[in-house]
Task: inverse folding
C-alpha cells in the first residue's frame, strides 16, 4: 500500500510556522519533537486519512552546521519543501525507481521522542532528484496523524515539474502510476500546491 503520508512545510523558526498555520486554518499544531543529527524539530496537525502536515524548522538546541536545519535557516522562507509517501517496502520502491532510471539514496533509520515520551522509529528513502517525493516506512510506530490535532483535510495536492529538471513531468507521472498513485503532474516550474479544507475554509499552501 502506498499513499501520500505527509506534507513538509518548512520555515526558519518553528513558532513562526506554527502561528502561520494556526492563523490560516484555525487549528493549532502540536509540538512533535527533535530529529537528532538532522538539525530540525517539528510540529504537526492531522489531515485525516493517515495524513498530516509537518511544520519543520531548525532546532536551536542542535549544532546546525551542515544539517537540514542550516538549509532551512539559510533559505529563510516558508512553504512546502517536500512531501512523503508512506509504503511498507522501501526495497520495492528502489526497484521501481531503478526501472525508470531514477536514482535512490541509502535507506536511513530515523527516530524521535514525542512530548509524551513515546519513541517513534521509522525508515526513510530519498531519491536523488530533490523535487521527487521521499518515502517513509513507519515500521511498528503509531502513525502521527492518529494523535495530532484534527479539523483539517487534504482535498488536493498538485505537482508541476520542469523538463529541464532531473526528472521531467512524464517520468514523474509514470513513477507515481507505478506506485498506484493518481496525483496529477503537469509541466511547469518545479512546484507543489496543497489545498486544505479547514475550519476557516479552503486554504492553499504553496512551494517553499
Result:
Amino acid at each position: 500500500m502506498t499513499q501520500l503520508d505527509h506534507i513538509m512545510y518548512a520555515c526558519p523558526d518553528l513558532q513562526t510556522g506554527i502561528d502561520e498555520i494556526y492563523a490560516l486554518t484555525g487549528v493549532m499544531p502540536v509540538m512533535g519533537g527533535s530529529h537528532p543529527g538532522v538539525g530540525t524539530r517539528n510540529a504537526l496537525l492531522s489531515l485525516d486519512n493517515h495524513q498530516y502536515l509537518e511544520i519543520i524548522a531548525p532546532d536551536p538546541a542542535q549544532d546546525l552546521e551542515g544539517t537540514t536545519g542550516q538549509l532551512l535557516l539559510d533559505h529563510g522562507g516558508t512553504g512546502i519543501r517536500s512531501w512523503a509517501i508512506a509504503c511498507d517496502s522501501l526495497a520495492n520502491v528502489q526497484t521501481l525507481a531503478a526501472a525508470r532510471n531514477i536514482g535512490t539514496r541509502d535507506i536511513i533509520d530515523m527516530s524521535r521522542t514525542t512530548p509524551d515520551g513515546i519513541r517513534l522509529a521509522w525508515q526513510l528513502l530519498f531519491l536523488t532528484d530533490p523535487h521527487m517525493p521521499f518515502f517513509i516506512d513507519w515500521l511498528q510506530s503509531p502513525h502521527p496523524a492518529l494523535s495530532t490535532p484534527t479539523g483539517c483535510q487534504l482535498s488536493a495536492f498538485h505537482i508541476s515539474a520542469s523538463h529541464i529538471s532531473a526528472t521531467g513531468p512524464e517520468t514523474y507521472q509514470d513513477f507515481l502510476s507505478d506506485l498506484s498513485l493518481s496525483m496529477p503532474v503537469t509541466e511547469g516550474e518545479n512546484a507543489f500546491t496543497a489545498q486544505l479544507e479547514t475550519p476557516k475554509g479552503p486554504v492553499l499552501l504553496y512551494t517553499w
Summary: The chain has one domain: 3-206. Residues 14-25 form the longest helix (12 residues). Residues 36 and 112 are 7 Å apart (CA to CA). The radius of gyration is 16 Å.
